[in-house]
From TrEMBL:
Keyword Cell wall biogenesis/degradation: yes
Main location: membrane
Gene3D superfamilies assigned: DD-peptidase/beta-lactamase superfamily, Penicillin-binding protein 2a (Domain 2), Penicillin-binding protein, N-terminal non-catalytic domain, head sub-domain
Name of the protein in its database record: Cell division protein FtsI/penicillin-binding protein 2
Organism: Guptibacillus hwajinpoensis
Family: Belongs to the transpeptidase family.
Domain Penicillin-binding protein transpeptidase: 338-653
Length: 678
């Protein structure tokens, strides 16, 4: 009995302890809820209404560009930029007041200020005059948007002269224009390249300039001046038609982007990661507290395939030889192009053009003409013509044809530079027989030639057959170069038989200098058409001068196609090209005598409306090619005793081998002038 009583009293005691503990917990919870709702309720309600905006971003330096030996080609020079960030509720009058203050501290370019900008500024600064532009009835009936547009339409030139005749006010208008361009809570550049004096004045008055700041920035500089500058490309505002696609990638409307050539091609690699200010705002858009700063990062660095020493030699040689050609009686020869490729990898070793500008009375860099302008190239295409003859079965190794003028009714006699008599395929290349190529064309077309006889049928599909085989070398098609644009040349279509014959000697369809470089590289490397390219490697941005050791990416050799010709056929044409620069009757033998390297190539002369285009393609060393060249000099008045194409080629080959084993100079860097903010 005693034990049973003890159990009955022990259990209720434990339950009482548990109930007391639960009671205390609920009491604490109720007390806490009361504090949150009553004491801190307003604070938490305000926090719940806050929104986070990650919109204030400042520009980051772009990646640099280096040559294949690590020498800086495109650099960034430190500078300072005046920036402005406005809140979502910043009024026009407040921005105008800031613009007026800034006008006292900086000089400002007013060229970008448009008529519409001036009209908007006129309305803001002259409210009474602006209101008088509309009648009371118009103000009553029209919507605010239509009323404003009518005000804009009624502002006259004499009204705007109130601004344009006052340099100080025009400066204010230009500054406010830049301030209005940016989005709310977005860093907008007002002026790049602040002087030390401007930095000092602004810094002293930052307290009275809400939203204004001075940010470190960088400008593109070119240590080698104008050398290859065109191919590097330019920076500019995002084109309107591309704004949507750039916005998706995280760009802002006022960002500078690559708009041409390498800057555009590799924009995604070169662009930096912006420094970001992360704001917390209330419902009205007013920032609360200090923003969180997230540092930016410079863009990746590009190592290009070019050798800047060879590039400079190329540009010098082009100008010198073009000057000589003009002095020899060719006043219309106003440009020259040359390209050097590694035939095994497609790497562009040097790539240039020179043009005489009558306006400047000087020679200017004109590299983009190598991929944007196309010409009739003349006999340099005859390697492709002979290989087409092999492939279609109309000729074989050693096939002999008679070189004498071809006479077709209603067509000017078609002949070589002289009657060469019986020639085979190798001699036809060595001595540059036109007639041999004409006869290949006639055979492909099934034309049973009889002199001065009309009505002989021929197959127009021969055009397609020839172009199909030419395309395998890159002639008449895109080379695939890593550039945003390139020209493919002009296809002359299907014309008369005589034009088919001209196609076989490079005087019908047109090609670019770059296509010629890819064509000769394909022959030099044994039949692989390889994509030409400027990019060699991508390196992570270095925190110090020089390249980082961290390679992000590399350009792999890209074989676009293997030509459908046998190794024996290619060896045969290579032999023919060797004879051109080494044979007893080679058209370029005398220009390549005495060199300490072996070589092969093909000369070309195209007779065109403006005169003559002189060309050359070749490679060296012959046994194991390291460099393939294409040279194009259009618009000469005469080709008689003119050697500009061969002279350029020989000098470029020599420059390559002379520079090949030379120690490479240290990379020049941009001048880094220390700029301090007082």
């Amino acid at each position: 009995m005693i034990k049973e009583k003890m159990k009955k009293t022990h259990v209720p005691f434990r339950l009482n302890i548990l109930f007391l503990f639960v009671f205390l917990l609920f009491s604490v919870l109720i007390l806490r809820l009361g504090v949150i709702q009553i004491v801190q309720g307003e604070d938490f309600e305000r926090i719940s209404e806050q929104t986070e905006n990650v919109t204030a971003k400042s520009s980051a330096p772009r990646g640099k560009m280096y040559d294949r030996y690590g020498r800086v080609l495109v650099d960034n020079e430190p500078t300072f930029t005046l920036t402005y960030i406005r809140n979502q509720n910043t009024k026009q009058e407040e921005r105008l007041d800031v613009a007026r203050q800034l006008a006292n501290y900086i000089e400002m370019d007013t060229d970008k200020t448009t008529e519409r900008d001036l009209k908007d500024y006129w309305i803001i600064t002259r409210p009474d005059k602006a209101k008088a532009k509309l009648t009371e009835e118009e103000w009553t009936k029209l919507s605010s948007k239509k009323a404003y547009q009518l005000q804009i339409d009624r502002i006259k030139e004499k009204d705007l002269k109130e601004i344009t005749d006052n340099k100080d006010e025009l400066k204010v208008a230009a500054i406010k224009r830049e301030m209005d361009t940016g989005y709310a809570l977005s860093s907008q550049s007002i002026k790049k390249g602040l002087t030390r004096k401007e930095i000092a004045k602004i810094s002293e008055n930052l307290g009275s300039l809400p939203g204004v700041d001075i940010a470190p920035d960088a400008e593109r500089v070119y240590p080698y001046d104008e050398t290859m500058e065109t191919m590097f490309g330019n920076l500019g505002q995002i084109p309107k038609e591309s704004l949507k696609s750039y916005t998706i990638k995280g760009y802002e409307q006022n960002d500078l982007v690559g708009i041409s050539y390498l800057e555009k091609q590799y924009e995604d690699l070169l662009r930096g990661q912006k420094a970001t200010k992360k704001y917390v705002t209330d419902k009205s858009g007013k920032p609360i507290g200090e923003p969180e700063n997230i540092p930016g990062k410079r863009g990746n660095d590009l190592v290009l395939t070019v050798d800047i020493d060879l590039q400079q030699e190329l540009e010098t040689i082009l100008e010198e030889e073009l000057r000589k050609a003009r002095s020899r009686g060719n006043p219309y020869a106003d440009r020259a192009y040359a390209i050097g490729l590694d035939p095994d990898t497609g790497e562009i070793l040097a790539f240039g053009g020179t043009k005489y500008s009558s306006q400047e009375n000087d020679y200017i860099e004109y590299s983009y003409g190598t991929l944007s302008e196309a010409y009739e190239m003349g006999s340099v295409v005859k390697g492709a013509s002979v290989l087409t003859g092999y492939q279609t079965g109309v000729i074989g190794h050693g096939t002999t044809l008679y070189d004498t003028p071809i006479k077709i009714p209603k067509t000017k006699a078609k002949a070589s530079y002289s009657n060469l008599g019986y020639v085979n395929d190798l001699t036809a290349l060595e001595r540059s027989s036109n007639v041999y190529m004409f006869r290949i064309a006639m055979k492909i077309a099934g034309y049973n030639y009889t002199p001065n006889t009309a009505g002989i049928p021929w197959d127009r599909d021969a055009y397609n057959q020839v172009r199909y085989h030419f395309n395998q070398f890159g002639l008449g098609t895109r080379t695939g170069i890593d550039m945003p644009i390139e020209t493919t040349g002009i296809n002359g279509g299907t014309q008369q038989l005589g034009n088919l014959m001209d196609l076989m000697i490079g005087q019908f369809d047109t090609y670019t200098p770059l296509q010629m470089a890819q064509y000769i590289s394909t022959i030099a490397n044994g039949g692989k058409r390889i994509q030409p390219h400027f990019l060699k490697e991508v390196h992570e941005a270095s925190q110090v001068n020089g390249l980082s050791n961290i390679i992000v990416d590399q350009f792999e050799t890209n074989v676009l196609n293997h030509i459908q010709m046998s190794e024996g056929d290619l060896n045969r044409v290579q032999n023919g090209f060797w004879r051109v620069t080494n044979g007893t009757n080679g058209t370029a033998t005398k220009y390549f005598k005495g060199t300490d390297f072996t070589h092969a190539g093909k000369t070309g002369t195209a007779e065109v409306d403006k005169g003559f285009n002189l060309t050359f393609v070749g490679y060296a060393p012959y046994e194991d090619p390291e460099i393939a060249l294409a040279v194009v000099v259009p618009n000469l008045s005469s080709d008689r005793n003119e050697s500009v194409n061969k002279d350029i080629a020989r000098k470029l080959f020599k420059a390559y081998f002379d520079l090949k084993d030379e120690p490479k100079s240290a990379a020049p860097t941009a001048k880094e002038e220390e700029k301090e903010i007082s």
